[in-house]
Structures are given as structure tokens and as C-alpha cells.
Amino acid sequence: MIIGVCTIELLVTDSNSLKDKRQVVKSLIDRVRNRFNVSISEVEHQDLWRRAVLGIACVATDQQFASTMLNKVIELVEGEPRVLVASCQMEML
Q1: CATH code that applies to domain 2-92
Q2: Which terminus of the chain, N or C, has fewer Cβ atoms within 10 Å?
């Protein structure tokens, strides 16, 4: 069993309040959940207007499959025009 874990630090560019940020982040989380079979949550910076850290995890039988799935999630997040990806870290357990 392979567990793939990824953290993505985001800058929410159009946010002027926590409400704006939460709307963007929640929308992004919902899209990832609907498209991929992964667990995803905002794990840091919940009280900052323009920063968020998403934690993503998937379980697979093959490391290559887990890596491919997490890379597709990263591509989806990078394609969101309302956020910029500041950093991304992936780890296989």
C-alpha cells in the first residue's frame, strides 16, 4: 500500500477578506474532490486573507499511480486563475 501526500501553498490573488478567500478555496477543494478520489483540506493559514495551504492524500497500490494522480491534482490547482501556487511538496509513504 502506497500513501501519496502533497501540500500546496497558495496565494489567493483576488481576496480582500476571509470570506473571499474561503469562497475561492472551498470552490477549488470541491472541484478536486469531485474530479479525483483524494482527500483534501485546507491545513494552514485559515486566518490569513491571501494565503492557504492545501493538504492532499491518496491511497494506491502503485507508487506511479499515486504520483500521477497527485500531479493531475496539482495541474488542476495551477489552472485556477484566482490562485498562484507558491510551493508544492509531494511525498510517498
Answers
A1: 3.30.70.1120
A2: N
Chain segment 22-72, per-residue pLDDT in tens? 999 999 999 999 999 999 999 998 889 899 999 999 999 999 999 999 999
Q: Any idea where the domains of the chain sit in the sequence?
A: 2-92
**Residue environment code for 23-39, b if the CB has 16+ CB neighbours within 10 A, otherwise e:** ebbeebbebbeeebebe
- Give pTM, 2 decimals: 0.89
Give me 85's grid cell. Answer: 501556487
Q: State how far the Cα of 2 lies from the Cα of 65, in Å rounded to an integer.
A: 9
H or E stretch at 78:
helix 63-78
